[in-house]
Write a structure and sequence with these properties.
This protein is of the alpha+beta class. It has one domain: Mago nashi protein (2-Layer Sandwich). The protein has 3 helices and 7 strands. Strands 1, 2, 3, 4, 5, 6 and 7 form a 7-stranded antiparallel β-sheet that branches. The longest helix is centred in the first third of the chain and has 22 residues. It is globular and about 40 Å long. About 10% of the residues have low confidence.
Length: 152
C-alpha cells in the first residue's frame, strides 16, 4: 500500500514539474533535444540551404547537393541559437507576415524558416531573403552570421 502511495506521489510531482517547464516556454512546445533548424533561400539563380543541429551546420549551395559541406557548431553557438528560438512563438510561425514582397517580382529570393522539434515541424510562409518578419529577424540574421563566419 505504501509503495503504491509513493509511486502515485512521484507521478504527481513529475507531472507538475513537466507542466511548469511547458508553461515557462512562452507558447513554445519545444524540446531542448532533437531540434533542427532549416533556413532555405532560392530563386532562379540562388540556392542556399542551411541546416543546423546541436553538433553541426550543413550548408548546401546547389539543388542537387553536389556542393554540400558541414561545419561544427560550438556549444556556445548552439546555446545562442536556442536562446533566439525560445523567443519565437513557434505556434504562430506559419502566420507571420513578411514585411516586403520583392520575391514576387524577382527582386529577392524566396526564403523559408523551418524549426523541427521532435516530430513537430513549424514553418514560416515564404518571405524575402534578407528581409525576414521582425519576430524571427534576430534568429535569421544569426543563422546568416554563422554561415558567413564558417565559410570565410
Amino acid at each position: 500500500m505504501l509503495s503504491k502511495l509513493l509511486i502515485s506521489l512521484v507521478f504527481v510531482l513529475t507531472s507538475c514539474t513537466n507542466q511548469k517547464i511547458a508553461s515557462s516556454n512562452q507558447g513554445n512546445p519545444i524540446q531542448q533535444n532533437n531540434i533542427m533548424i532549416n533556413y532555405e533561400a532560392h530563386s532562379r539563380v540562388v540556392y542556399e540551404n542551411i541546416t543546423l543541429s546541436e553538433q553541426k551546420m550543413t550548408l548546401r549551395l546547389d539543388r542537387n547537393n553536389a556542393r554540400s559541406k558541414s561545419y561544427p557548431l560550438s556549444a556556445k553557438e548552439w546555446e545562442h541559437l536556442m536562446e533566439l528560438v525560445s523567443k519565437v512563438n513557434l505556434l504562430d510561425l506559419s502566420r507571420l507576415n513578411p514585411p516586403t514582397s520583392k520575391r514576387l517580382y524577382d527582386g529577392a529570393a524566396h526564403a523559408k524558416l523551418t524549426i523541427t522539434s521532435g516530430i513537430n515541424k513549424y514553418n514560416t510562409r515564404s518571405f524575402d531573403h534578407g528581409y525576414p518578419p521582425h519576430q524571427i529577424n534576430d534568429l535569421v540574421h544569426y543563422i546568416q552570421t554563422l554561415k558567413n563566419q564558417k565559410t570565410d
